[in-house]
Specification:
The chain is of the alpha+beta class. 31% of the residues lie in helices and 23% in strands. The protein contains eight helices and 15 strands. The strands form four sheets. It has an eight-stranded mixed beta sheet, sandwiched between helices. Strands 14-11-15 form a three-stranded antiparallel beta sheet, with no helix packed on it. A hairpin with a 2-residue loop joins strand 1 and strand 2. The radius of gyration is 22 Å and the shape is elongated.
Amino acid sequence: MSSKGYEIGGLPVWYHPLRVDMWAALGDVQRANLRERVRIEQSAAGADASESAVDKIYRQAEYADRRKRGDYSLQSFLRQIRRHHISNGGLIFDMASLGPHLEATWADGITLKNVFPWRTAIYVHVGATLEYDRENPASLIEGFYINHSDSPVRGWLLTFVTNHPDWERRAHHMPSHTRKSFERYIAFAIPENADIAQIDYAKLKIRGDKDLAKQASLWHLARLATNAMLYLSRARPDVQGTMSMFRTETSDTNRTEIYECGCDEVDWDIDWSNATLMPGRWIVDDPGGDRTPMVTRWVPPRLVLPQEREKFLQDGGKVLEFKARKR
């Protein structure tokens, strides 16, 4: 644990649920820093830096920012998702190293009726994906909350959230900037009896940022979340508890358990740029029932080497290709 958050591989990581926790107290800090910036700017310009002059300029700037109040219904929904997450233990599964392998896995013919991914509410962090493109805002999606729901349909509510690239400077942003970042998410429900590969995603009711939803591949996101659920439904998920029951930086964050996934079963050194893959697949060992969860087995994707690609296709093999990503 560092002063900037949890450390994974020596790098500070602020998971989305922890940022949501800190958001509540952030406004007071940001407004105090705004006042101090006004004071410094007035002094640097040789202008009136008296308390009354600073207060007048501060109030004008703060009022203008407050008018950019955003959509409170979006903010309320996200906080509700986080509260449900906390009430179920606040588990965070870090699948950043595993994510590309799950993206390249197909899940045809599988429903989620008897899937039970550890809790009825979890958060999965995947970071940058194979379809990352810095010119597409949808590429900011870094993880998703998975919640079991009974309304509007019985199934799983998936809430895909985006990162906050300049989070380390959060104390110096305007409150509206932070609110806008947290409003950037997509949520939709997957019926538990539906075949994930056959759903008409264009007809799903979307909550959140509608513009973001238009730029994202909903089918692609749903497949990634579904594969994460199936991964946790295996008889022995490879889940290593890297940190457990620690508070992060201050009491601004809730107690949580964080697990790193994919530690001992996949190749972490694959160069995903211009990669050609044989897609991974799922085998259902036990479909489960009313009182027993589904048990799955994963056949991870395999890298198809250039010299074997032609023969592989001639033999009827299917491949996935990923081009170099824009950074």
